[in-house]
């Protein structure tokens, strides 16, 4: 079984793909879709769904709306980022406001990180050693 994929999240990720935010649509259609690498939208990675994922570079791109700045959202993002980093994935976070006001700078930053992450093969599998959201560690 490929632990890189959590089948329970697939229906939700498909729904999220159909219902992207305005900022996600802008980044996707006006930049990411045109890149010469495969970029996945709403990609299931372990217990999480990434807004955008470039497997060949092991780069995850997250667009943060207001819910990410509330206490629960901040902690959830920390847990998620830690799991991604444990699995060798670089996490790039941009606010919706940055997409709206600094789109070219965001695109340049993504390209810069893609250049920094030399070509590496996609991760064959990720472990599910990170705990699922809202689950306490076992004693």
Quick tags:
4 strands, four-stranded mixed β-sheet, Endonuclease, Chain A, about 40% helix, disordered C terminus, 5 helices, about 140 residues, globular, alpha+beta, about 20% strand
Short description:
It contains five helices and four strands; from the N terminus they run ααβββαβαα.
Q: What kind of oligomer do you see? A: single chain
**Roughly what is the average pLDDT, rounded to an integer?**
76
- What is the strand content? 15-25%
Overall morphology = globular
CATH superfamily: VSR Endonuclease
* Largest sheet, strands/sense/barrel: 4 strands, mixed
Structural class: alpha+beta
- The total domain count is 1
Order of helices and strands: HHEEEHEHH
Structure description:
With 139 residues, the chain is of the alpha+beta class. It is built from 5 helices and 4 strands. It is globular.
Secondary-structure map:
Blueprint: H1 10-18, H2 22-30, E1 40-45, E2 48-54, E3 59-64, H3 71-86, E4 90-95, H4 96-101, H5 103-116
């Amino acid at each position: 079984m490929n632990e890189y994929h959590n089948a329970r999240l697939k229906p939700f990720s498909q729904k999220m793909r159909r219902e992207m935010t305005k900022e996600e649509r802008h980044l996707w259609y006006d930049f990411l879709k045109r890149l010469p690498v495969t970029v996945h939208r709403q990609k299931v990675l372990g217990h999480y769904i990434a807004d955008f994922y470039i497997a060949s570079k092991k780069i995850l791109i997250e667009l943060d709306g207001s819910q990410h700045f509330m206490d629960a959202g901040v902690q959830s993002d920390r847990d998620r980022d830690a799991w991604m980093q444990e699995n060798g994935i670089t996490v790039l976070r941009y606010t919706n406001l940055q997409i709206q006001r600094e789109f070219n700078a965001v695109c340049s930053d993504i390209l810069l990180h893609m250049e920094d992450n030399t070509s590496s093969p996609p991760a064959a599998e990720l472990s599910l050693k990170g705990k699922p959201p809202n689950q306490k560690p076992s004693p």
